[in-house]
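Sequence only, no structure available. Ideas?
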Amino acid sequence: MCMEKAKNSLIRTFGRVRGKTLSDRKQWLVENLLPALAPTKNDQDAILEIGFGAGEHILHLAETHPTRTIIGAEPFMNGVAALLSHMTDDVGAHTCAPGREYAPLQIIKPEYKNIKIWPDDVRKLLSMPYALCPMPYFAFSKIYILHPDPWPKSRHEKRRLLQTEFLNELAGRLAPGGQIIIATDHLDYFDWILEKAAKTNLKISNKDFSTPPESGLDTRYKTKDMFGKNTVKYLILTHKA
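Reply:
I predicted one. Tokens follow.
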């Protein structure tokens, strides 16, 4: 499997990769449907979401951009399983039982057939050598990073995803006119991102950081109001002229 051949020396920027035990249905979806949804060399002009949680925004993107490929990267397997569950018809555990024949791709709801899933660290996908895995050189029209783990303790800042190097890597994956849309309710982390972005090949394209730049950005994480601020800051980054 090409994911296993990607570099594995990256500093971990996310928490756990597994939570509670999956239901029989979700386990079946992970084992039988997920492998068929890997990004491929045919996925051109795609939209990427990094860290999609339970998949609320990914589903919104698929519905509002039906002709585009939507790629979601998420290492937390329970979140991946939750998205698979929302994408598919209501197939019960009895239907997915060993010995029952069922074609996984046939159970995806029509409005979600443009979703692809990378169940691992997105940096492995972006740095995948073509010789090891025939992926395209992605040029995304939009990249979403909604509520990344802020790693609030100073000793953990090295684990924050949005470092200068990574932002520059994303800049190299943006199509002409493409956007990186970031949201966080951790104000210290927002200031950190502004500082890192200033050192990259990107420029800040929005002046109003408090207004969502588009609809559909109210993820479950935002609803939880993790840091008790009830305030989310939004950042749009584009190529420098």
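The beta strands are 47-50, 70-73, 115-118, 140-146, 174-184, 202-204, 233-239.
Hope that gets you unstuck.
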